[in-house]
Amino acid sequence: MKQLKIKIGFAVVFAAVSLFTGCNPKKQATEEELPNLTQYVDPYIGTGFHGHVFLGANVPFGAVQLGPTNITQGWDWCSGYHYSDSTLIGFAHTHLSGTGIGDLGDILLMPVTGEYQIATGSPEKPEEGYVAFYNHDNEVVKPGYYAVEIPRYGVKAELTATERTGFHNYQFSAGTDAHVLINLVRGIGWDAPVESHMRLENDTLLTGYRFSKGWAEDQRIYFAAVFSKPVQSIVLFDDDKKQDGRELVAQKLKADLDFGALADGLVLVKVGISPVSSENALENLQIENPGWDFDAVVAEAGRKWNTELACVTAKSSDPEVLTKFYTALYHTMIAPSVFQDVNGEYRGSDKNIYRDTTFVNYTTLSLWDTYRAAHPMFTLLKPERVDDFVNTMVKIFEQQGELPVWHLMGNETYCMVGYSAVPVVVDAYLKGFKGFDAQRAYEAVKNTAMGDGRGVSYIKEKGYMPADSDVETVAKGLEYAISDACIALMAKDMGLEEDFRYFENRGQNYRHYYSPEVGFMRGRVSDTEWRTPFDPFKAQHRNDDFCEGNSWQYTWLVPQDVDGLVELMGGREKFLSRLDEFFVAEGDMGEHASNDITGLIGQYAHGNEPSHHIAYLYSLQGEPNKTADLVRKIMDEFYTTRPDGLIGNEDVGQMSAWYVLSAMGFYQVHPASGEFVFGSPALDEATIQLPGGKTFTVKALNNSAYNKYIKSKTLNGQAYTKSFITYQDLMKGGELVFEMTSER
Ligand SMILES: [Ca+2]
Ligand SMILES: [Ca+2]
Ligand SMILES: [Ca+2]
Question: Are the beta carbons of 290 and 307 closer than 8 angstroms?
Answer without folding.
Answer: no
